[in-house]
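User:
Note these tokens:
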Amino acid sequence: MTLEDRVALVTGGSHGIGKAVVARFLAEGARVAFCGRRESDLETAAAEFTRPGSEVLALAADVSRHADVARLVGAVLDRFGRIDVLVNNAGVYGPIGPAWENDSAEWQRTIEINLLGTFRVCHEVVPAMIRAKCGKIVNMSGGGAATPFPRFTAYAVSKAAVVRFTETLALELAPHNIQVNAVAPGFVATRLHQETLAAGERAGADYFKKTQEQVAQGAVDPAIPAALVAYLAADTGDRITGKFISAVWDRWAEFGEHLDEMTKTDVYTLRRIVPADRGMGWK
């Protein structure tokens, strides 16, 4: 597996999982552009990544603003001439607590960043990939996409929508040799979980306790989801598209042995469960 000479754009790449993805891509030989909202984080990350032989471009951008996204993608294309890999990682938890107590503006802001931000960057990047007749897109999903996530409603809704967007976009782009997948990174200790700890009881007693325990134990190494993203971005991901894959629970390193089954079935997708799926005889 290699990303030698590929050009990648990673949103939310200045810290956490995104930063681990940038590091992995650079280690695999890619030329990488990444963005973030905080200038200080961008400067720190850029300094860490800048080394002989590496090509890296750090840009300030807020994916909730279309003008920022247009400038971001334009700058990357001006610098590198193409974008082979797009990783939509930028995201926020949004309001924490019972849905009826959430601030509607914060709820909307969460959708703007997590869902519409993903759409906006794809909207700007996909035409260039279509012209190149190839490309890889990896959208970061998360908790609540596959199961309910009480007290994190805006986050859960946005991430579930990202998965359905991924599946649908994958079908639209299949004729253009562009693969689109979503990744569930697992419980990585990031700033989002610090927000859970700060929220206290509003996060729910069970999830608050789980977060405390996971953070104390070190949680999931961000290098693990970064490795899956690299797997999907490289040639190893050429036949994988429209899938929702867990970095922690799925044996993705063995996917090469099961590609025929994966491509012909709806495994690793979101689907409605009916009685027959559970061995029941009623409808």
About this structure: The mean pLDDT is 95. The longest helix spans residues 104-132. Residues 7-187+222-278 form a domain with the Rossmann fold fold (CATH 3.40.50.720).
